[in-house]
Amino acid sequence: MFDFVPIRSYFDVYIHICLGIVAFTLLHTYVLPLWDKKNISFINVMGYVLFTYILFYMGFRPISYLFGDMANYAVLYKSYASGEPARTEQDLAFNYFTKFCSYIMSAKYYFALCALIYIYPLYRISKEFFKEYWYYSFLLFLVSFSFWTYGVNGMRNGMATSLFLLGISYRKKLPIMVVFFWISSLIHQTVLLPIFAYIISSFYNKPKIFIYGWFAAIPLSLVLGGFWESLFASLGFADDRLGGYLLGEVDEQAFSSTGFRWDFLIYSSGAVFTGWYFIFKKKYEDKLYHLLFNSYVICNAFWILVIRANYSNRFAYLSWFMMSIVIIYPFLKQQFFKNQHIIIGRVVLVYFGFTYLMYLVYYG
User: Fold this and answer.
1) Could you read off the pLDDT of 110-164 as tens digits, one per residue?
2) Which bin fits 283, alpha (ψ -120 to 50), beta or left (φ > 0)?
3) CB-hemisphere CA count at 13 Å for 351?
4) What does the alpha-carbon distance between residue 124 and residue 162 come to, in Å, rounded to a whole number?
């Protein structure tokens, strides 16, 4: 569908379109108040345009090794279409889903369907939580540092965490939420971490304690080093594949194999600071926000403990996928500042700024 875009420039086009959208959104925040009917009309139209664009652009991308593990998924899909039975040793839901799709559609439409499963929950939870202001939340999801990677490369992780968010969007309908949590864990086992974090937070709503734990994880990681990787692997947190990410020999070419990543720790702290600021400085009382914030902090603290592991970005993603909603939530639920619409635009710009900076550093 987008054959006119060179494959090697596919991500470049996406990131620069995001840059244009973010800049235009920022400009618009200076023109109209957040609650103005013209603004609401504009952001809803923009939201659906953005949803349609990213769904088709990501979903109908060329099948290529340049998109990382997409090539491996294509090989798996071809083998299923040729008659190989579904693999049952891990990720049952994903493998049965892939096997079923191989009966009725080509790989091209299979990847489009995977993109829909990945993207729709981000729209659904934004719409459910923020009503007419959903665009800002959805945009923040789409310009997140990890969004593109887990839509085209780590697809199972991306689909699983999105279904987890879809479950949270049905929090008022417990049976539906449980079903989505269960399916997400069968797509990728590591989603059990945010599921457990969400359950713990549901029964123990103490943001200050979790923040203390997050800060404590930093010296514990610095001092004890590889102890935590060995501990979590021995407890069977992950399957053999992900256990290898914890204990495997460091690959100097890997994304996060250069020791203690202070840059990504600072990035992660943005959501921690935001939650602390609104909960304790602004005395923001919202049970759901506390629940999301606590879940994020627990998962991010786990990543800090295993930060030196080869491919630790796969564990960082178990908190990063919630980061955008933790940051934007208070801004869209309550009036805190005189020029709040402008501040929202600046928040979007700063948040995307890290993504664009890392694009320049790693891909530029």
Assistant:
1) 999 999 999 999 999 999 999 999 999 999 999 999 999 999 999 999 999 999 9
2) left
3) 29
4) 10
pLDDT at 364 over 70: no
Residue 326: CB atoms within 10 A of its CB come to: 23
- Give the span between the Cα atoms of 214 and 304, in whole angstroms: 8
DSSP-derived secondary structure letter, 335: -
* DSSP secondary structure, 5-62, as one string: S-GGGHHHHHHHHHHHHHHHHHHHHTTS-TT-HHHHHHHHHHHHHHHHHHHHHHHT--
Q: Is the pTM of this model over 0.70?
A: yes
DSSP for 240-305, written as a single string:
HHHHHHHHSPPPTTSTT-SSS-HHHHHHHHHHHHHHHIIIIIS----HHHHHHHHHHHHHHHHHHH
Note whether 110 and 259 are within 8 A (CB). Answer: no
d(CA 262, CA 265): 5
Q: Taking a C-beta distance cutoff of 8 angstroms, is the pair 254, 311 a contact?
A: yes
Q: Report pLDDT for 307.
A: 80
Can you give the pLDDT at residue 313?
A: 75
* CB atoms inside a 10 Å sphere around CB 334: 14
Integer angstrom CA distances of residue 261 from 47, 210, 310: 34, 21, 12
Q: What percent of the chain has pLDDT over 90?
A: 76
Q: Which two tokens stand for residue 283?
A: 């005395």
Please count the other Cβ atoms lying within 10 Å of the Cβ belonging to residue 307. Answer: 26
The two tokens of residue 271 are 């959501």
Mean pLDDT in residue range 213-225: 87
